[in-house]
């Protein structure tokens, strides 16, 4: 199970995704934990079993057990938060002051460096299409010292993993 397996299973029309997977997996823009945690959180966020299983085994060989749990926690909590925050936005100004009222303890104690968890949350929020969460996590990670280039590296991983999941789904349905 690996990114190489994913690449070999992609059709010719997804050649750019193969190339992006290769280059992003070798990226030096992020720390190893940031890189592989982003891959894992994004794979979980795609809700694609094949993508998740192929990436999770490889990512787990680069991450501590705590980082694996935190990356999966980022994917899970953002699945909830992204829906709730988008709904508040859809519902309009009348809902801006309504208390969220959902438990989000993992955000305060993720088990890894806060900046890493926030970066993973940002990447997942981009997949889930939540601009408010994406911007909030960007503000946090930039405040913690990450550069625009590092943030966008995580966005590129999210975009590529999302595209790979789409291609895998297309091929499964053909």
From TrEMBL:
Q: Can you tell me which residues form the catalytic site? A: 130, 133
InterPro entries on file:
AhpD (IPR004674), AhpD-like (IPR029032), AhpD_core (IPR004675), CMD-like (IPR003779)
Q: What Enzyme Commission number(s) appear in the record? A: 1.11.1.28
Q: Which UniProt keywords apply?
A: Antioxidant, Disulfide bond, Oxidoreductase, Peroxidase, Redox-active center
Q: Which cysteines are joined by disulfide bonds?
A: 130-133
GO terms for biological process?
A: cell redox homeostasis; response to oxidative stress
Which intervals hold domain Carboxymuconolactone decarboxylase-like? Answer: 100-169
**Pfam (any one):** CMD
Catalytic activity of the protein: N(6)-[(R)-dihydrolipoyl]-L-lysyl-[lipoyl-carrier protein] + a hydroperoxide = N(6)-[(R)-lipoyl]-L-lysyl-[lipoyl-carrier protein] + an alcohol + H2O
UniProt GO MF annotations: disulfide oxidoreductase activity; hydroperoxide reductase activity; peroxiredoxin activity
Q: What is the role of this chain? A: Antioxidant protein with alkyl hydroperoxidase activity. Required for the reduction of the AhpC active site cysteine residues and for the regeneration of the AhpC enzyme activity.
The UniProt entry's sequence similarity note says: Belongs to the AhpD family.
Please describe the quaternary structure of this protein. Answer: Homotrimer.
This protein is called what?
Alkyl hydroperoxide reductase AhpD
Q: Which organism is it from?
A: Corynebacterium meridianum
